[in-house]
Design a protein that fits this description.
With 127 residues, this protein is an alpha+beta fold. The chain has a domain of 64 residues. Helix content is 33%, strand content 20%. The protein has three helices and five strands, in the order ααβαββββ. The chain is rod-shaped. The N and C termini lie far apart (74 Å).
């Protein structure tokens, strides 16, 4: 009497549909297929995030260019002429006195009462 083996369901690569051999939880036949699948899956969000990060990096470069020493006051026109986008920041810091600083990574600014902007470099104690 011969015993028949139950046939295991065939598993295929999620990207190229090749038959998978090996671990039961394997989903891809190669690193290439895994990367291609995930890149295709995240393509829309990656483009959106890439655009936002480009704006943030540009804002940081502008703040760094206008404030090489760590503290400086500039008028709004100087920031606008460089192409600074006030809609994109990475974080906000409020001092104990209620002064609000807006940051692009480690470069920040605060609007003064005169309508100018006081530019700063982030200090270690600022979270």
């Amino acid at each position: 009497m011969t015993q028949k083996r139950e046939e295991k369901p065939k598993r295929n690569c999620l990207e190229c549909d090749a038959i998978l051999r090996g671990r039961k939880d394997q989903k891809f036949c190669s690193d290439y297929c895994r990367n291609a699948y995930n890149n295709r899956l995240n393509e829309d969000s990656n483009n959106y995030m890439r655009r936002i990060n480009n704006i943030l990096r540009k804002n940081r470069r502008i703040l760094d260019k206008l404030n090489p020493t760590g503290k400086k006051t500039v008028d709004a026109l100087a920031l606008a002429e460089e192409g600074f986008n006030f809609h994109y920041i990475t974080n906000i810091y409020e001092t104990k006195k209620g002064v609000v600083y807006y940051y692009c990574y480690d470069r920040g600014y605060m609007k003064t009462d005169e309508g100018n902007y006081f530019l700063v470099h982030k200090q270690e104690y600022v979270k």
